[in-house]
Amino acid sequence: MSAESQELRVVALVGSLRRASYTRRLVQALGILAPPELNIETVPLGNLPLYNEDAETATPPAQWRNFRDRVKRADAILFATPEYNRSVPGALKNAIDVGSRPYGASVWTGKPAAVLSVSPGALGAFGANHHLRQSLVFLDMPVLQQPEAYIGGIAQLIDPSGEVTRPDTQAFLRQFLEQFERWIRQQRLKVAP
């Protein structure tokens, strides 16, 4: 099997906990639009206890261990976020903190990433997208730069079943996913023995 046809496991972290979340629906749609070699699995964040260093013992909370293990096994991370007060939701920030600890054992280091931000408003959660990127730089994650993915007016672009309703949006999302796949493979070549 060639490196180009090898399946890539992508963990998607959805910042919104709301059941009918636009962000969650869009990530589900990405799973359908993705190239066949890109396997996107959403890892839930709502059950992660808030990060507290006092719980970072020889046996940290099981939810933390499970989350860290799933991220470690992934080839890449897709961060999908709405915007709350010009930043990312607390659940997503908490997941980032849980994965970055204990000190020196971050599950994020060197892991290729992409950021997708979603909003019913016109700006497409631009503030959250860039605020999140600041954290990813610190975490030493190579982040896909182009195409940038700010999805504004999401309520008109995706129906309640999770289907993207506009062909131009579908085309953009396919382009984003294809470029993300290439990005992941490029990053893997850089660290190959």
Q: Can you give keywords for this protein?
A:
single chain; 193 residues; alpha/beta; Rossmann fold; five-stranded parallel sheet
Distance between the termini: 18 Å
CATH topology: Rossmann fold
* Topology pattern, helix = H, strand = E: EHEHEHEHEH
As a percent range, the share of helical residues equals 25-40%
- The dominant shape is globular
Provide the structure class: alpha/beta
Beta-strand percent range? 5-15%
Can you tell me about this structure?
- The protein is of the alpha/beta class.
- The protein has a single domain, classed as Flavodoxin domain (Rossmann fold, 3-Layer(aba) Sandwich).
- The chain has 5 helices and 5 strands; from the N terminus they run βαβαβαβαβα.
- It has a 5-stranded parallel beta sheet, sandwiched between helices.
- Strand 4, helix 4 and strand 5 (about 150) form a beta-alpha-beta unit.
- The two termini are about 20 Å apart.
- The model has no long low-confidence stretch (mean pLDDT about 90).
